[in-house]
Specification:
Elements: E1 2-12, E2 21-23, E3 25-29, E4 32-33, E5 39-43, E6 48-49, E7 62-65, E8 81-84, E9 90-92, H1 98-106, E10 110-114, H2 131-138, H3 154-162, E11 176-180, H4 181-190, E12 205-208, E13 224-227, E14 230-239, H5 255-265, E15 268-277, E16 279-282, E17 286-290, H6 294-301, H7 304-319
Parallel strand pairs: 11-12
Antiparallel strand pairs: 1-2, 1-12, 1-17, 3-4, 3-16, 5-6, 5-10, 7-8, 8-9, 11-15, 13-14, 13-17, 14-15
Amino acid sequence: MIPAGRITSIWRYPVKSMQGERVAEAAIGELGLHADRTWAVRDVELDATTSAKRLPGLLWLTARYADAPGPDAGPGHAPEVLIGFPDGTEVSSSDPDVHQALSRYLDRAVELRPLPPLERRDEYRGPMATKTDLRTIFGLEDDEPLPDLSMFPVRKLAEISRYATPVGTYVDAYPVHIITEQSLATLASLAPDSDFDIRRFRPTIVVDSPSTAAHPEWDWCGGQLHAPHAELQPLIPTIRCVMPSHEQPELKRDKEITRTIAAHTRRCLGVYGNVIRAGRLAEGDVLHLNPPNRTALSATAGSGAATMKRAVMRAVSAAMPSGKKG
């Protein structure tokens, strides 16, 4: 194994798309960081979980647990959360008025929903995204091409096309999201007038790597990251939507953020991954990498799996409605 870096911060998000909270340490398991995203906002009209991709105002809301989450926090067991509004008011998830308060603030009918139990898979479903939806999510003009999602494995593509979020979580795709300090510095050097504040990108952990690579975490994909008390498996680069460019407290709206990422890193920053050994993570933990087997990865990429993935992508794109009103 080789040194990969040191964890400099850990982030938990009690409510999907609301402001996160930095924690010194936390348990981590198959579904991700303990008590991460146990609540989300549901769009009543769409009857689906929504986020700041569609409702940027969510980024201005704070969310904190009323008490330290117990060991059972997760699907079917969402601890009480306190939501703070820009005017200083705060509403509890246990308050029957919480749905009306959020709807008034967002100017759209919404409800605050706890993370459903694993067996209630229907509650994780959502309407199939349209091409117009994708343009909104990625901040694309009508004449710009849709993003390349071929880095996702076929099984994950099928899952995220069927469910609004993976069953058991309110994350977008994978339970772990890792960003290095070096990647942020690389992008900041390309757009010196923009603020690549970590809060824009909502990671699980931030790592300071000794690597001289512009994006060290990309070299970890397919390998294993060993912390003292847990193990992670970085899988694919994280494709970025329009959210990082949105305004939020202390951070102005800045379209140059997503333009820079699109122009220089194929819309990717950080990596998605899984947890392969549950345990605990803490700030200051030193990480070591069991490097990926590049020969095996290359063989897989050149096999029938790649052909199948391209076929799936074409089929999904063909089946996806345009979303334009006639």
